[in-house]
């Protein structure tokens, strides 16, 4: 059986085995945010919480910046990162705006316009 390799999509970071290994600690920390007490502990002392999970400096800097693209580049998985984003009231439109370099308002307008094309 032949495996087909798809060309990379410009501007994306595929979440493959290498990224999964690189982001294990980051994703494990974000998964912990399913529990309210973990979210509270993180908000009380973000630095201590990141040390608890042994994040790399690159991952910690991306957490401090609340920058989803940097977190993805640091091995973050979008599903786990959504747990982190939710702590700060960020929703998928906020994340989409970051990913496209648009303001949230511009991104939402683009979504509305795309929906009206159908």
On the 0-100 scale, what is the average pLDDT?
Answer: 87
State which percent range the strand residues make up: under 5%
Q: How would you characterize the largest beta sheet?
A: none
Judged by helices, strands and strand pairing, the structural class is mainly alpha
Counting DSSP E segments of at least 2 residues, the number of strands comes to: 0
How much helix is in the residues? 55-70%
Which of globular, elongated, flat, extended, rod-shaped describes the shape?
globular
- How far apart lie the N and C ends? 38 Å
Our count of helices gives 9
Element pattern in H and E: HHHHHHHHH
Unreliable runs: none
Measured on Cα atoms, how large is the radius of gyration?
16 Å
What do you see in this structure?
By secondary structure, the protein is mainly α. Helix content is 66%, strand content 0%. It contains nine helices and no strands. The model has no long low-confidence stretch (mean pLDDT 87).
Short description:
By secondary structure, the protein is mainly α. Helix content is 66%, strand content 0%. The N and C termini lie far apart (38 Å).
How is this fold's topology laid out?
Layout: H1 17-22, H2 24-32, H3 36-44, H4 46-52, H5 57-65, H6 68-73, H7 78-87, H8 92-100, H9 104-116
Looking at this protein, list some descriptive labels:
118 residues; 9 helices; globular
